Amino acid sequence: MDDIMGGVIGLAVADALGVPVEFVDRQTLKSNPVIDMRSHGTYNQPAGTWSDDTSMTLCLVESLSEGLDYTDIMNNFNNWFEQGEYSPHGEVFDIGIATRKALKRFSDGTAPLNCGGMSEFDNGNGSLMRILPAAFYLQFIDRDEKKNDEKAFTIIHNISALTHAHKRSQLACGVYVSIARSIIGSSDLEEAVNHGIDKAIDYYKHQPDYIDELHHFQKLSTKEIGSLLEKQIKSSGYVVDTLEAAIWCLLTTGSYQDCVLKAVNLGEDTDTVAAVAGGLAGLHYGYQSIPKEWVATLVRRDYIEGLCNKLGLSFYKLDIENLISYIPYFEFATRESVCQWKGGEKLGEKHFSMPYPEYDQTFKEFIQQINETNLLLHQYTLVTDKLEFANKEQVNSTIATADFDLLRAILTRYVRQERFSDGAWASAVEDKVFFKILQRLQQVKSLG
Question: How many CB atoms lie within 10 A of CB 191?
Answer without folding.
Answer: 12
